[in-house]
Design a protein that fits this description.
Helices cover about 15% and strands about 30% of the residues. By secondary structure, the protein is α+β, with helices and mostly antiparallel strands.
Length: about 80
């Protein structure tokens, strides 16, 4: 099975134009010693898009994306940093 997903583009200043699917919902929590990420279909596709963007060949080590409840996660979520190593 093959699926296609749009990923963000790296701009000339080195930042990314990330792709956010309409209606996405992403929530993160910590329960005991586990990190829980819950998302609807659009949220999962959005996260996949961000991860694929970080996996692109021209992305250098240390590049990262911050997600938090002020701009991208549901209220009460813990912040998440996706980082390329």
């Amino acid at each position: 099975m093959q699926r296609f997903i749009e990923i963000g583009e790296k701009s000339t200043d080195g930042s990314f134009r990330l792709v956010w699917e309409d209606g996405y919902e992403i929530h993160s929590a910590i329960q005991g010693d586990e990190i829980i990420i819950k998302a609807n279909r659009q949220g999962l596709r959005t996260l996949a898009s961000h991860l694929m963007a970080l996996a692109e060949e021209d992305v250098s080590s240390g590049y990262h994306i911050h997600l938090d409840d002020l701009n991208s996660l549901e209220d009460g979520s813990y912040g998440i940093v996706l980082e390329r190593i």
